[in-house]
Amino acid sequence: MVVTGDLVGRLICWDTLGDRPGVRWSIETGHGTLRTVAISNDGELVATGGGDGMVRLWSATDGLLARELAGHACPVFSAAFHPDGKHLLTGDRGDQKIKQWEYHAGKELCEFDAKDLSNYKGGTDINYGGVRDLAFTPDGAVMFCCGRDSYGRPGLVLQFDWKTGDQIRKQVSTFDSSIFHHVAFHPQGFFVTAGVGAQTGEIWFWKPDQDEK
Q1: For position 124, what pLDDT does the model report?
Q2: Euclidean distance between CA atoms 27 and 180, whole angstroms
Q3: Tell me, what DSSP letter sits at residue 169?
Q4: pLDDT at res. 94
Q5: Nearest residue to 44 (alpha-carbon basis) of 6, 76, 16, 3
Q6: Which of 194, 196, 195, 192 is nearest to 207 (CA)?
Q7: Per-residue pLDDT at 174
Q8: Which pLDDT does position 121 carry in this prediction?
Q9: Burial class (CB in 10 A: 0-12, 13-18, 19+), 185
């Protein structure tokens, strides 16, 4: 199965094993603009976030709403399930806060402060920042998030220690006015970021413990 979301808040689950994809279920999430979709490690839940600031969990079997998580004060841009199968992280646009949830209980546990991804530009009333994506090392010991380092500056990736919540590393693009939209960890031990600048599309490959790409 494949799950997709769109700009009007629709979430669609597709069966892909046949000759042609077929729709298993299709729902309206209520987010307005749907910004992020994540699937739990056991495949039972789909997490979504978007323009209304809510995080919603849906049954992957039939698309029924399983739980709502309220706490973000601005649009939710990113979501990722921790490998331990107990926790969900969600990141927002305006406050650069990453919330840790015990999602089965519907309880918020703590926040990671990703203030380095902030870049509000005064005069335009537009926030170009935000936690654009989230990922983990396979063992769940380190959390990654990405976005941009202030208005008109390069895209960056932040690393946080999962247990302490401390920021432990920052890796920065060399392209000005760029922003990283996605980060993914490869099984061979490196991670990949994808982004865009004023005149560039960029894909970066990094080792977690090295500042240079």
Answers
A1: 59
A2: 29
A3: E
A4: 78
A5: 3
A6: 192
A7: 82
A8: 60
A9: middle
Amino acid letter at 185? Answer: F
Q: What is the pTM of this model?
A: 0.92
Closest by CA position to 62, among listed 24, 30, 34: 24
The stretches in the chain having pLDDT less than 70 are 119-128, 151-152
Q: Which residues contact residue 210 at a Cβ distance below 8 angstroms, ignoring those fewer than 6 apart?
A: none
What's the burial of 188, exposed, middle or buried (CB within 10 Å: 0-12/13-18/19+)? Answer: exposed
Query: Quick check: 136 and 144 in contact, CB under 8 A?
Result: yes
Tokens at 26, concatenated: 């299709």
User: Residue 13 corresponds to which tokens in the numbers above?
Assistant: 């689950």
CA neighbor of 52 nearest in space, from 80, 100, 104, 90: 90
For residue 160, what are the CA distances in angstroms to 11, 71, 143? 30, 21, 5
Query: What gap in Å lies between CA 179 and CA 193, rounded to an integer?
Result: 10
What pLDDT is recorded for position 115? 87
